[in-house]
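Researcher: Let's do a round of design. I'm pasting the structure tokens now; please hold your answer until I've finished.
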């Protein structure tokens, strides 16, 4: 691997764009590939075997076509379901996975965790904390798709979100954990519904860790010019 090789940011849709923005803030000189798998999205409700075949096919093609040094899995569903597979199959690359930002400190107060159904079902991290009495876990089937479909008019989702979350108004929700990168785009709406809540997602920590690891392996791109970005919807 070389310093100017690409960092691949992999997601099923627009959630990866949010992670890419954080990466560019901490690593502006890197070259990036953002893959938004719009042919097979959303991942959150796909059958495991179908999703597995698609991810392997896409990652195999991307790693064969481009010189890549790091793969950032910007999809909580993939991280939850196929982390071990990706580590085994793509071990020659630096691998980082987005995960819900959940810990005991956050769970000292009433906390709502929102994610896709597949993330809720398969995430070992969520399962570890699921018995905590302060944690409420909600899995959505098609919210990521609705966000992608309305990315340029996200306010249209405020009313259906209010209608859905009305049942939690009396629970004194203190924290909201965003367990899908797509959902970062509706934090602005959720803040209107839960004005006193704190919001947690880990794209910042992921970007900072990326920089630390690249420095550790002496692979950070040190050129003064900003890197370039390739945007892909299919391959």
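Researcher: That's everything. Go ahead.
Model: Designed sequence:
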């Amino acid at each position: 691997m070389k310093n100017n090789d690409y960092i691949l940011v992999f997601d099923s849709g627009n959630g990866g764009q949010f992670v890419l923005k954080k990466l560019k803030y901490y690593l502006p000189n890197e070259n990036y590939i953002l893959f938004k798998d719009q042919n097979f999205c959303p991942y959150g409700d796909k059958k495991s075997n179908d999703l597995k075949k698609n991810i392997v096919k896409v990652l195999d093609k991307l790693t064969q076509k481009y010189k890549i040094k790091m793969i950032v899995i910007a999809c909580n569903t993939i991280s939850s379901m196929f982390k071990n597979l990706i580590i085994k199959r793509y071990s020659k690359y630096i691998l980082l996975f987005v995960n819900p930002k959940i810990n005991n400190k956050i769970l000292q107060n009433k906390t709502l965790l929102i994610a896709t159904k597949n993330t809720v079902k398969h995430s070992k991290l969520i399962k570890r904390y699921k018995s905590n009495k302060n944690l409420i876990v909600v899995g959505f089937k098609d919210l990521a798709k609705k966000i992608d479909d309305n990315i340029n008019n996200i306010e249209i989702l405020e009313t259906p979100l209010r209608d859905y979350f009305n049942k939690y108004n009396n629970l004194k929700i203190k924290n909201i954990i965003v367990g899908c990168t797509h959902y970062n785009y509706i934090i602005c709406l959720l803040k209107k519904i839960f004005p006193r809540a704190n919001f947690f997602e880990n794209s910042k920590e992921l970007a900072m860790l990326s920089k630390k690891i690249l420095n550790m392996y002496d692979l950070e791109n040190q050129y003064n010019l900003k890197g370039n970005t390739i945007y892909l919807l299919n391959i």
